[in-house]
Structures are given as C-alpha cells and as structure tokens.
UniProtKB/TrEMBL annotation:
Sequence ranges of Polar residues compositional bias: 1-23, 104-117, 126-143
BP term (GO), one: nucleocytoplasmic transport
KW Hydrolase (keyword) present: no
CDD domains noted in UniProt: PH (cd00821)
Gene3D superfamilies attached to this UniProt entry: Pleckstrin-homology domain (PH domain)/Phosphotyrosine-binding domain (PTB), Ribonuclease Inhibitor
Disordered: region residues: 1-40, 52-92, 104-143, 1152-1180
Protein name per UniProt: PH domain-containing protein
Any GO CC annotation of this UniProt entry: nucleus
Keywords in alphabetical order: GTPase activation, Leucine-rich repeat, Repeat
An MF annotation (GO) of this entry: small GTPase binding
Record-annotated PH domain positions: 200-319
Residue stretches of biased makeup (Low complexity): 31-40, 52-74, 1160-1176
C-alpha cells in the first residue's frame, strides 16, 4: 500500500457492510432496536444498542443565550453567508482518514450525510469585493509536500442540506451564542448530574486493544461495552450479557460495577481520533486516574464501519461530561499565564484565557522510505488575545522542539481551519514568514469549542471577520459570537492614541505583527483627524537594539494589511519611506503572506496598493512621495512599468474615490503615466491635487498631463506640481502655458521648477491668478523677467501669495534688491521667499545696495539664503547687516559654502557672536548642513568638519542672553562633544530656546549626558529635540568596530607579554595593555548604555513639554477666569443702571454696551454669559494661516509653544473641517487642499519636508471654501462684552467642544435654570460674589 497520499485506500479499507444502520441520523434521540434489525446484524460482532439519552449535551446549549440573555449582541452581528469567501491561496491540503472514507458512498452512512467543516479565514473586509460562492476545487495542484502534511488529493463532500439536517438535528432554531450563558451552563450541569445517576448501554462490540508501552505490551481481544458514564470490557459477549441487560432501553439508576470491569471513565477522556497509518484503528487519549498524566489506548475494530461507529459513539457520550474533564492543572495554568504575560498577550480577565490539553500529531517519513509514521505528543493549547500557543506538558525536550519549531502563532496567521466532524481532529493551516504554509494537526474533545474560541479571538481584533466558509455545519456557522474587550496598548495610552478607532487600528497592527513575528515597537506613525476621517502618516522607524533604519518588507506588509481592514482614513501617507523591498518581492506559491489573487501582478506592492485603494472607501489622498518606487535594479535595469500603474488601473475600474495623488521623487515609466492618464480620464472623481515632481517625465509626457487636466474638470484642480530636474529645463508648448491660469481657476499651489514659465516666450497670466504658493525655481531669469516679476509683485494678485520660490534662478545682488523692494511696496510681507542656490555674492558691485536694503528691513519676514557661496569678507558684511535687521523673523542660512579660504577669520566669528547677542527679531534660525555634508566613516572617531562648524560652535556663547530666538537648527555640523558642551553652557542661562536640532553632529554618550543634565536642571523651557537617529546609528557602529579593534590589540599585547623577556619593554607593554583594557571596558559600557541615554534625553524633553502644556493651560484658565469676572461686573453694572431707571430707559437702545430693546428673560449671570464662550475661545485660539504656517516653506513662522488642550481642540476642529461638511457627510468641496507631506523647494531633488498646513476653511475669502458660520438658532445675547469674554466654568468642566454644543448648552441652561430676581438686582450680593471669586483658583471658587 502506498502512503504518499492519504486518499489512497487499499481494498481492505472498503466498506464491510452496506446494510449497516446509520448511526448519526438521529444522533440525540433514543433509538430502539427491533428484533429484525438485530437479527439482520447478527453476523456483525458489535451492536448499536442506543444512542445518547434525550438529555441535552453541551454542544446544544450554544443556542440558549439568544432566548434567555439580554446581552447587546446586536453590535456584533455575524455577516451573512454571502460574505463568507474562500481562501486567497490555492488550497487543497485536506485531512481525511482512509478508514472513515471507504463507506462515504453509502446512502445510509453517517459520514455520507456529514459535510466536512473547512474553515478558511478572510482576515480583511476588502476581500468582499471579490467573493464568490464557496466551492471546493478538487483539481488544484497541491500546495504542500504530502510527505510532511496531512494533505490529500481529493475530498468527498456530502449534500450540504443533508449535513445541516442530520449533523445537529436537535439544535434549537434560534441563533446559537458563544460563550455560553449562566443559564445554559446550569442546564448542562443538571444534565450531567442526571446522566451520572443513571446507567444505560449505548454501544457494544468486540475489538482489539493495545495498552501503552509497558511490561506486558501485548494486544488483547475483548468485548467492550460503552455506557453513558464508562467503557466496560469483558472477555467475551456472553460474559457481558450475563452481567448487563443489553436490550433494556430505559435508563435505570446507576448500578454498581466491578472496578476490574471499568476500562475507562468517560470524564477522563480528552481526545478520540483515528490513526491514519493503520486500518480500523483509533486512539483514546485519557488521563491516568491517580497521576493525571496523559495516557492512551489503541483500539482496532473489525471493520471500517464499526471503527467509525465506535468513534462517534464515544465522542457523543463524552460530550455530556465536558464540564467534568479537568484537563489542565492549576500549576499548568500558571505556566501558561506566565508565557502569555511575556508576550503581553493576557486578557483583562485571566479566566477568559482558553486552555486545553490536546494531542498534537505529525506524520513523518524515514529517509528513502514512503511508509509514514504518525507521531503523537500531548501538549497544551492556549488562546490569548492576539496569538495561540502550543506549550509542552512537561519540561522542554527534543521531541517537542522538533514538532512545534516555535510555540507561538498569531491568530491572523491562520489560513484555514479544517474540521470534518468525523473524529476530534482539527487541522490548522497557518502562514509562516519566509517559509511555506504549515499544517498543525491536533485532537481534542473540545474541538468545536476551540474553533469558536479562535473565531471569537479573531472577531475581537476586528468585527465581522469571516473565518468560516459556507461549508461549515450550521451549528458552528450560525453561532453568534460575542467578542471580548482587548485592552488599550500602554504605548497608545502614553502617546495619546486612545480613541476607539485609533485603538482598533493599533490592536489590528499588533495582531498582524504577532502573526508575522515582528516588533510593533519599531513602528512610528501619526494618526490625526475626527472619526472616520483620519489622516495616517508613516514616520521613520524606531531603531531598537540596533535594528535597521528602514522598514523591512514584512513590516511594510503588516502595515498595509492593517490599513486595509480599518476603513477610517481619508489620507494615507508613506512619504520618504522606501517601498522598494515590497516592489521587488515577488509572489510565491505556497506562501500565504505573499499570495493574492485580486490583481494578477508579479510584485507584492502592486497587489497591496490595489487592496488599499479598493478597501478604504473614504480614501481621498494617497501620498507615495520619495518611496523609491520604479527604481531600476540590477535585475531590472529598465522597468516597463512599476507599482504606480496600479493606481490608474483602480481608477479606471471605478473602485476608489481618490482625488489627490502624490507620486513625487519616484520613477515613472511611460506605461505608468499612460495608465494614470487613462485612469484620470475615466475616473468618477475630479483630480484636485497632482504631484508628479522629479519623476523623470519628458516633454511629451508633461504636455500629456496638462492636456488631460484641461479636458477633465480643470476648475477642480487646486494643487499641481510637475517640477523637473532635467538639466537646462524643458520648453513646453506656449499654448498650454497660456491656458494654465485661465483654465485652473481655483489653483492655489503651482510648482513648475525647471520650465522657465516667466520667460518672454510664454504668456503666463500671473496677474489673474489666486495662487497661495508659486515655485518657478530652476529657471534662468534675465533682467527683463525680473522686471516682469517685480511688476506682478505689486499687483493685487500677489497679496494672496504665502510662498514664492526663486531658487537656482541665477539671481545677483541687484535682482534680489529689486525683489525685496517690490515685496515691501506690495504690503504682503507675511510670506516666505526662497532664494536658495543663487549666486548673490557673485557680482560684488551690487552688494552695497543689497546690504542697505537688509539693514533697513526690506522684504518679507521669512527668507532663505541657503546653498549660497561666500567668502570671508562678504559673509562678515552680510552677518553685520543681519545683526541690526528688525524685519526677518525666520532666516535660513543652511549649507554655507566658503570659497577662496581655508578658515574663517576671528572677526567673522565675533560678528556671528554679535548677531546672536544683539538681534532681537529672529525667532527661527537654521545653520545646518544638508547638501554639503561630508560622508561619515564608522571606522574613525573624528569626522571631517566643515569650515563653518568651529565658527558656529565658538559663537554660540552669544545666545546665552538672547531673548527672542526660539528655534535653532545646527544639525549636520560634526562639531562633536565640543559643540554639545558649548550648547549646554548656553542652556544654563538661556530661557527662550524651545526647539533645538542637533542630529548628525557625531556627539558621543558623554556629550548627551551633559545635555540631559542641563535640560533637567536649568533649561526646562526646551520642549523639542528631534531624536538624533543618525548620531545614535553612527555611535553604535563605531563603538562595535572599536571594541573589536581593542580586543585584537589586547590579545596582541598579552601575546607579547608572554613571549618577551626584557623588563623595560615588558613594563611598558603591560601599561599599554592596561590602557587598552580600560578603553575596551569603557567602550562596552558606552555601547550598552547609549540607547538608554538617548531615551533619557527624550524623557526629559517629554517632561518639559508636559509641564509647559500644563502651565499654558493654567495661564489660559486664569485668563478666562479674569475675563469672566470682568464680564459679570460689566453685566451687573448695566443691570443695576437698568433697574434704577426703568421708566427713564423705556424704549432706549443701549447700543454702546450691546443692550437691545426687548423684554428680558430672567436668567442668572452665568447663564447670560454662556453663549459668549464660543466667541471668546475663537478670539483666544484663532490662528491666522500666515502667522501659524507659511505654505510651502519649512522656514515659515510656526506656533512654537507646546499645544495646550485648547489648541489641540481647535486643531481637531480644523481637521474635521478638512474632509467633513457641516452635516458630517463627505463633501469634496469642503476638503482642505493642502500640500503633500514631503516636498523640496529646490531643484536638486532633496529639500525640506513640508507638513500639511491645517488651514481652516473659514479663513478662505472665497465662499466656495468657507463653511456656513451662521447658526440655525437665533437669539439676542445679553448685554455685555459677549464677543470678548468667555465662560470659564464650561472650560473647566470640559464642556466647550464645539459651537453647536455651546449654543445648545446656552438654550438648555435658559430653559432649566430658575433664578431669584431679587438676587440679580441686589448690588451687595453681586459685589460680595465678585470679591469672593474674582482671583481665586478654580478649585477654591464657590
């Protein structure tokens, strides 16, 4: 007999009796046996005497809760059967016993009417778009090596309708509920007590049994009798009939049975399963009565049908005793809980952790042999909140490690669950990392409860997860499962991500990381926005214990899977995170994590982008800027298309609502662009934002993009970036340039670097534009073009400009002077001017005029002079002008390049020091190096320093008493510990610096310790220092290399000491050895403590930030309290005057104080001021777009103080207005049109990361962008300074949430408040109240 396939059966496995009675048709009803039926079966050696008593078993009680419990289970309704889909992979790994298969063709057979339960998890709702009717494909090629799995070539499936009617005929018609209710448990216990108090014969027959290995390990033949409580054995049937009445079908009181006749107690059995390597044979797993250790009996029946009946009869009888089976001891439970605690996988209630004793099975083959061997090992199965575990019963041994390989598997790694209900065997197919899928086979009498527990755990991760297909018995399929509550991750509590949707996202991500064996702590991301309108942005990973600085492919895959099942995002941003590994990762058969049948593409990234777009129905913006997509590799030097083409494909299919696309700094082929263009043309939505900057587009491709936008709703285009880095620029069709401004009527952001739009060859109508940002850098501007720019600057259209980019435009000093003068004359000085990379100091003759204009404060308040070449004298003169400049608040002097000099003079250093001391206008200053930074080598401690580095370090002393500068960026200077020491001295006395960037400076652990000390003790105002990732990474590499060097030097010195005889040389070498050992120990200590020191620095910064936020909160609270008191005083004075002169004031309009001629409603002073709270908060918290953010610039003014609760509340309201209309319905016109998360303002392809401005729609002048500010409730405010003051009590109690809430609160307060009129007009009471509560703290006020 060949055993390569478990469906291969020998002739002796065929059915021995085609006339046998079906055992399972009336599974739970007593069945009397007539004489005719008995006589027809007289040739058989076993007799079916009775099925189970009519008492209900535990499996039936899953239906009790729906009728007796009032649990709010409606929140977790299971999806209809149409939502159940097949697995994503080609699956035919099926487990079936040969001994149970042979009689499947018989119409009277129990197994012919039982449908196998193949459970296949669909872990993402996005799969519903491709769901088909669940069928079993028996012609698929096998995914698995049948030599190592329980795989089969085919599966015989019976009639589903017959299965539904016969498998659980007695299940109540109501929907079942899991877990069981208390009423159901009580009924089960009552049934168990009734069963234990009676005696009834269920099944009997001859069989051969083989006990476990021992002294007398011989097979024995006996006659077995299955009762409702025990299995009895006799020498023969005559002996059994002499002691037991086999034909009495009435339950009798429990009779006394000789102990020698008791083969097994049913309450000690924990598994009954067939052995697939032996004919007619099955195993009974049980616990020893005295030691409680797992034992087993192997029983061989006389035929396949009899073996099947024995298994079903024992399973059915044991099911009544489930509550008596104590499979896990208390000590084993403690071990399991300890294991789950190490993985943070515990539940809130440890009693909810499901723990079972199971029998793990594995099929093995000897080398060179096709004969399998089935290996059995008892284990403990535990189901946590995110994973399930296979733990050893005893101490770890080689057999256990060989069988399980790893003891933890994520719940979301389950690819399918197979339960045929023929015995207690369950086959779990799980997905593995970098390996083929694996089958985990085990047996347990709690098989159905285990399946439901797994489903419940998955449902708790995200609702309505479709773990079952339609080929599941109705009692499992229709069971209503109530998920448990997963606690909030402590990291989310610390970071503030504790709202319901963010918690659900974090839980799903933790589940996927557990399934892929990843570390969730490496993920770094932000989620902001109102419910159902979240914005997700991926940040660089946390480098924990020397982990890579970029995300690995499985980490990105887990993130994509998590996003796909959380339909709450309107914007997803992967900007500046490389996706190259995912794009070069090919789909592999037999690996469930990589298989995807939705999009027939060869790489994983294309499939994941497809599922992301089709799964997130609210998604409006996808930002893939600088993700290394389409990048040529050694395998594919020329790509025909990339994963970016998937976006166009999905848009053509109409499966997404995407309207904002950012593909900048990737490589787009012509095929990618053509698919995107066709997608834009056939898309149901209009394109509002399109960023294709630096994607390698040629002239015809750029013109094709413009023509497409002109054809498809050009009035909807708000932001457009087609910048290029092509040397010499690109000359476009003049007719296209001429149509841009008239066609794009609502265009706000236009970035066209490298096209020379303002040349005399183009008729570019800037005078008619409404632009907020314009970038025309990379163009060679002549004097005529500069004159044209200056003329446009003085037109009204320039007043809306917030950012003007003129980088790399070959501007000299005179050109810059003219532009600064024109901006001053225009009056729009609250804007950012980018002059990077211009040879301003090239023509020395024009410098005096430029210096004069800077000294006089001409130009905008935010300017960038980055990437400019200087010599020592011109730099000194320029700094001298900046020293007395009273206009610039934001200045960028990054990447200072010195020419014609080898060092910076002391006069220049003194001038820079004087700039730090005397300038009282600068708020933000950047002196970093990004483009001109020399590469670092991890094999040397000292790195090359730029000339400007030492000059900046020596001049930092000027900041000791500076009282205006709040943001300082000195990263990339390589000033080492000397710079850290100078900065720590500055922070001892400086009390205004709040944000400092010091990364890429080669600072060691000692330098960071000095900074930590001064920040904790003195500089408590410092609330922001970005994590020095590059320094940390460099120090770890250098210390590891240095330790290796020192170990080699130490060994050499020891060898020299052993083999030298000269005393002087030996003495010096010994001293050298001591020095090497000391340095090695110091380096090892630094390597161990480096990450903890950086963590301490971040903790100190976080503490300062929280204290600063609390202080701002207290200040705001005190201010609101004072305003409220002043308001009450003003109202009291008006009312007092009104009361004293009612007759004289009749018909008088007190317009000076806002009193209207009307009949007053009696109300208290508190109630009268409630309606003013909203306006006072708006006045306090309203942030002008120009004050808070200069669009398109990283050098613009920003809110430097830490966010207070109020500012956070305002920010949430702003974000809500981004994608929500007033009735909380998505409105494309109300969506905020902001820039992508990353963009550079120069033509070099690098640049600064620009965060999306959260600009409230109320600040747009055009009514199209403005939301209605009018309220549906019209009422006249009480007299007083209603528009100037707020109500402090509402803020203290957390009531101020929105305008609508305040209005409703005002009216409700008016309706429900009853006030004594005398107290209002009593001046003494008012004065006493004001004196008592004017300046008291909130907790002391009455």
């Amino acid at each position: 007999m060949s055993n390569n396939s478990y469906f291969t059966t020998s002739p002796f496995l065929r059915s021995q009796s085609t006339n046998s009675r079906s055992f399972g048709k009336n599974k739970y009803r007593p069945e009397s046996i007539s004489s005719n039926s008995f006589s027809s079966s007289s040739t058989r050696r076993s007799v079916l005497y009775s099925t189970m008593p009519s008492s209900t078993t535990q499996q039936q009680y899953y239906s009790m809760m729906s009728s007796s419990s009032t649990t709010n289970s409606s929140d977790y309704n299971r999806p209809p059967s149409s939502f159940h889909s097949s697995s994503t992979s080609d699956y035919d790994g099926r487990y079936q016993h040969p001994i149970l298969e042979a009689s499947a063709s018989s119409s009277d057979s129990y197994h012919a009417t039982n449908n196998p339960a193949i459970i296949s998890p669909r872990l993402s709702p996005y799969s519903r778009s491709r769901m088909t009717s669940p069928t079993i494909n028996t012609n698929r090629d096998s995914m698995y090596d049948t030599r190592n799995t329980y795989a089969h070539d085919q599966l015989q499936v019976g009639d589903p309708s017959a299965s539904a009617s016969n498998t659980r005929a007695s299940i109540d018609s109501n929907v079942s509920v899991f877990p069981l209710t208390d009423e159901a448990k009580q009924l089960i216990n009552a049934t168990l007590l009734e069963t234990e108090s009676t005696f009834k014969v269920i099944f009997a027959g001859e069989a051969i049994y083989k006990p476990e290995k021992g002294l007398l390990n011989k097979s024995k033949k006996a006659y077995f009798v299955l009762t409702n409580n025990q299995i009895l054995f006799y020498k023969n049937s005559q002996k059994a009939r002499s002691e037991i009445d086999m034909f009495d079908q009435v339950q009798k009181p429990k009779k006394s049975i000789d102990k020698d006749r008791v083969f097994l107690n049913l309450s000690s059995i924990y598994a009954v399963h067939a052995i697939i390597t032996a004919a007619y044979t099955f195993r009974i797993e049980y616990f020893h009565p005295q030691s409680s250790q797992p034992q087993h009996h192997i029983i061989t029946a006389v035929s396949t049908e009899e073996c099947k009946q024995w298994i079903q009869a024992i399973r059915k009888a044991v099911s009544v005793h489930h509550s008596r089976i104590n499979s896990v001891s208390l000590s084993e439970r403690y071990i399991v809980i300890d294991r789950l605690t190490k993985q943070s996988d515990n539940l809130l209630n440890s009693d909810d952790i499901k723990i079972y004793k199971i029998m793990f099975k594995e099929k093995r083959f000897k080398v060179g042999s096709d004969t399998p061997k089935e290996v059995f090992l008892p284990m403990i199965l535990a189901i946590g909140k995110l994973s399930f575990y296979f733990l050893p019963v005893n101490a770890l041994d080689d057999e256990y490690l060989k069988m399980v390989e790893r003891d933890r598997f994520g719940l979301l790694s389950i690819l399918s669950i197979k339960f045929e209900n023929l015995d207690d065997t369950i086959v779990l197919e799980v997905k593995q990392v970098n390996k083929n899928n694996r089958q985990l086979v085990f047996a347990s009498v709690f098989c159905q409860e285990i399946i439901l527990s797994l489903q419940r755990a998955v449902d708790s991760i995200f609702k309505n997860s479709c773990l079952f297909t339609a080929n599941v018995p109705s009692d499992i399929k229709n069971t209503h499962i109530i998920p448990f509550q997963i606690p909030v991750d402590p990291e989310d509590e610390i970071s503030g991500r504790d709202d319901e949707e963010t918690h659900r996202f974090s839980t799903t991500l933790r589940a996927f990381t557990a399934a892929m064996n990843l570390n969730k702590s490496r993920y770094n991301y932000t989620i902001v926005g109102p419910p159902k309108f979240k914005i997700f942005k991926l940040l660089p990973p946390h480098e924990i214990c020397g982990t890579p600085s970029t995300y690995q492919k499985y980490e990105i895959l887990a993130l994509f899977k998590t996003l796909q099942v959380n339909n709450i995002f309107v914007e997803v941003c992967f900007a500046n995170c490389s996706l190259e590994e995912l794009e070069t990762w090919k789909i592999q058969a037999k690996q469930g994590w990589t298989e995807n049948t939705t999009l027939r593409d060869e790489n994983i990234l294309a499939n994941e982008i497809h599922d992301l777009l089709t799964g997130l129905k609210f998604l409006r913006k996808l930002d893939l800027t600088n993700c290394s997509i389409g990048k040529p590799t050694s395998d594919h030097p020329i790509r025909r298309y990339s994963a970016l083409s998937t976006v166009g494909t999905v848009m053509r299919a109409g499966k997404t609502n995407l309207s904002r696309i950012s593909f900048g700094h990737n490589h787009m082929s012509e095929t990618d662009l053509n698919k995107l263009i066709r997608g834009i043309k056939e898309h149901k939505k209009s394109i509002k934002e399109l960023y294709l900057n630096d994607c390698g587009l040629e002239k015809d491709m750029v013109e094709l993009v413009l023509k497409t936008l002109f054809e498809k709703s050009p009035e909807q285009v708000l932001q457009l970036d087609l910048s290029t880095n092509v040397k010499g620029g690109i000359d476009l069709d003049p007719t296209l340039i001429q149509k841009m401004i008239p066609a794009f009527k609502r265009l706000e952001i236009l970035r066209m670097r490298g096209y020379n739009l303002l040349s005399m060859n183009y008729d570019f109508h800037l005078e008619n534009s409404h632009l907020i940002e314009l970038d025309i850098g990379g163009s060679k501007l002549t004097s005529e073009v500069i004159s044209r720019v200056c003329s446009w600057i003085q037109t009204p259209s320039f007043l809306s400009i917030e950012t003007l980019g003129l980088s790399d435009c070959n501007l000299n000093g005179k050109n810059v002077y003219d532009i600064l003068q024109s901006i001053t004359q225009s009056g729009n000085r609250d804007m950012h001017l980018n002059l990077e990379g211009n040879p301003i100091m090239k023509d020395v003759m024009h410098l005096p005029k430029l210096h004069s204009s800077i000294l006089q404060g001409e130009g905008p308040r935010s300017v960038s002079f980055a990437r400019i070449e200087w010599d020592d004298s011109t730099l000194r003169e320029f700094i001298d002008c900046l020293r007395d400049n009273q206009n610039f608040t934001h200045l960028n002097l990054s990447d200072i390049v010195m020419r014609d000099t080898t060092e910076i003079s002391e006069d220049t250093v003194r001038m820079l020091t004087s700039l730090f001391e005397r300038n009282n206008c600068l708020v933000e200053l950047e002196l970093n190096l990004k483009y001109s930074q020399a590469p670092q080598s991890p094999f040397e401690r000292s790195q090359p320093k730029p000339l400007i580095s030492d000059a900046i370090v020596n001049s930092l002393v000027g900041l000791r008493h500076n009282c205006t500068l709040r943001q300082l960026d000195i990263s990339g200077l390589n000033f080492e510990d000397a710079g850290a020491l100078a900065l720590s001295r500055v922070l001892k006395t400086n009390r205004t610096l709040q944000s400092i960037s010091i990364d890429n400076n080669n600072i060691s652990i000692e330098g960071y310790r000095k900074l930590i000390k001064v920040i904790e003790e003195n500089a408590t105002q410092v609330t922001k220092i970005p994590i020095p990732r590059n320094d940390l990474r460099f120090q770890i590499r250098y210390l590891a290399f240095r330790i290796e060097e020192l170990i080699i030097a130490e060994n050499e010195a020891q060898f020299f000491l052993i083999h030298t005889t000269a005393s002087d040389t030996k003495k010096s070498k010994k001293h050298e050895l001591e020095m090497v050992i000391q340095e090695r120990r110091t380096s090892e200590l630094a390597l161990r403590n480096l990450e903890s020191v950086i963590h301490s620095l971040m903790v100190a910064i976080g503490k300062n930030s929280r204290e600063h936020e609390e202080q701002n909160y207290r200040n705001m609270e005190f201010q609101l309290q004072a305003q409220n008191a002043a308001q009450e005083l003003a109202i009291a004075q008006v009312r007092l005057q009104q009361g004293r002169a009612v007759s004289s004031m009749s018909g008088t309009n007190l317009s000076a104080v806002g009193v209207h001629s009307r009949t007053r409603n009696p109300s208290s002073s508190n109630a009268s001021t409630t309606s003013s709270t909203n306006s006072s908060f708006q006045n306090l918290g309203s942030i002008s777009r120009r004050d808070s953010y200069q669009a398109g610039s990283n050098y613009a003014a920003s809110n430097l103080s830490s966010p207070t609760p109020y500012h956070y509340q305002q920010q949430q309201q702003m974000e809500a207005r981004m994608y929500m209309s007033r009735n909380n319905i998505i409105s494309e016109e109300m969506i905020l049109h902001h820039k992508p998360h990353s963009h550079d303002n120069n033509g070099s392809g690098g640049g600064h990361i620009l965060q999306s401005p959260l600009t409230p729609s109320m600040e747009y002048p055009d009514p199209y962008y403005r939301q209605s500010e009018s309220s549906d409730i019209n009422f006249v405010d009480d007299p007083g300074f209603i528009s100037d003051f707020g109500y402090a009590d509402d803020y203290e109690q957390g009531l101020v949430e929105s305008t609508d809430f305040i209005v409703n609160h005002h009216l409700e307060h008016r309706k429900t408040t009853s006030v004594d009129h005398d107290s209002i007009w009593n001046e003494d009471q008012l004065v006493e109240k004001l004196n008592r509560g004017l300046y008291l703290p909130p907790d002391s006020r009455d």
